């Protein structure tokens, strides 16, 4: 069976001048992958007629499916629709369902008068199948040409995601006979990519030819991903289960989860399973750990609250850190990390707490320690542990590294003290 | 003068299966743009020999410069270096400076024994100019072929950024005679893209042919960007200044800043200018506003702290919200938003405070209000204002929209009450 391949084509000057980060392509790639469609290429071009045309020609030689996002807005720089009408031929007609949708959005949701540009959003070439937009005004378009499929969708993430989930993915599965694709991911923390590779070298060298192993490092974590493709779904799944089981004892001590999840999800699930709650006292991470934990829709069951104690006075007055310790040892030390844990547990009455205090850079804020010095404290009502870390480089990376490391410390503390 | 164009080629399966979001391309595109190099295309391919080779062939027909990131790691799935050695010819040699760098990192920074795979990172084809890596082990490579330039850099963001800033950008400016490119960005809030377009239609229709206007919407904000390219830098800068001045009165009421900055930077700068401080009391945003404000390296001068009052009890005990109000009206109402502002100002002694309480979804947490209902409060020690908002769609978007809207409310409150 021939492998079905896709290309993602993103349209918009904003991607080429770097004003916007392309999150759509990552989402689309994930969804296609789960469906057994291999993404062979991602291309981004600007709002320029010839460049879009040429990119469409090229991607159609590489892939069976081209998914296009962007360029469908109501403004003059959005030229995707007229281009596709020319590329695939046909006459522009008003789609009645799309028009009713635009009318409804303006009348009942936005409660504002409609503009002519919005009405034009309901126009489509009569050579496409219209994809209704449940979350916005611009409809999507499905074209077919010589056995290949080209789909155009808006660039607004939730609009595109709605179309993909409700229409495009199911229809692609109908239209193509798809190979089975399967992944197994192990999330590990506290070991570098090259040390991990050295440790599992024999495992990697003995992998069957149709199984690939990828190392995906990201801020203190590495995702180890096994991928296999083929026609016999049952055999592939079984083989990957076996390989995952062989890998597990080799990485047991650094394994966070045997699936592709985030550190915050692992910690949230652990807390939920134990019906316990956590709080944070954050100085240098400025609420980022709290933000990560509450990105989880179930967080109200395990997350109590946080104090972002940026100002030294807040550490002292709100979280009861000893004034003398602050004066003698500064804000970045073992004692402050420990007292922040105790202070926030006391204040918000959580079962556990994470505390961080450190210097994220670019300067060291007058403290007598290098940028990247961080003390992380974790604990419960009975016991508190604190450890010093040294991160490097830029502020954003230090904040990310501190957050991941602190959540992993909390996870290990919970597992070791139950 | 011919325009100098670049293509960005990103290598790695992780981008094609969507496990990683490509932030490198956005950063590179921004930097090239500032230097007068137009990014014509961005392409991502997997760790597959033929696909990388083909993409390199193709991008070299589209662009004068190809910047490659990724695939230089120490593990077996990283094949960029052998491929480039074959593509450009030459023999692999050990670069002494790169080797000294790898040795130094392991000896003095990581303080761990080195592996053979790490040693191999110092090997490069003798047909390239080596780019030293100040932030990691893998060196970069600069190749030239028929007047075109191909640069290979690691995929780790801070390593790539170091090479670009210290070596690649200066050398590209030497190597090519570059056109002048200039942008003017206006950041607006509180108006939709199509209404904005309608309002400035005449301005847009009368723009000179070599000036482009782009609308870049992002979570409650729209960036309006004017771009011009040409040989006479002074004339172009002056023309854009004039156009920006014509645009300003048309958007005065919704203009946040006449430059390309973030809402949090605008608010931080305003507070710094006034030597005032802000705090936040966050329920539904879970610390995200606090995180955004503290991403600014200068935040310690204007940011006091936050209480993330996720649990109802924290609202009551820590921030002194009236128990009766919570019982009778629930947590999402005007009174709670107002009392949170007062409570956090009292607790952390800031000049201003932002408070948010709402329902981010996917469910409404048992409250008698629809998902997306948010009350935002802003105020100082004398005065508090609160307003109800209705956002829609998914949790992540609601958190982003709430944060941006709340910071804009705070900005306007400060400007209106000074």
Automatic annotation (TrEMBL), chains A, B:
It comes from the Bacteria. Residues 7-175 form the MoaB/Mog domain. The keyword Coiled coil applies. Pfam families: CinA (PF02464), CinA_KH (PF18146), MoCF_biosynth (PF00994). Keywords: Coiled coil. Residues 226-253 form a coiled coil. InterPro entries: CinA, CinA-like_C, CinA_C, CinA_KH, Competence-induced_CinA, MoaB/Mog-like_dom_sf, MoaB/Mog_dom. Belongs to the CinA family. PANTHER family: NICOTINAMIDE-NUCLEOTIDE AMIDOHYDROLASE PNCC (PTHR13939), NMN AMIDOHYDROLASE-LIKE PROTEIN YFAY (PTHR13939:SF0). This is CinA-like protein. It comes from Ilyomonas limi.
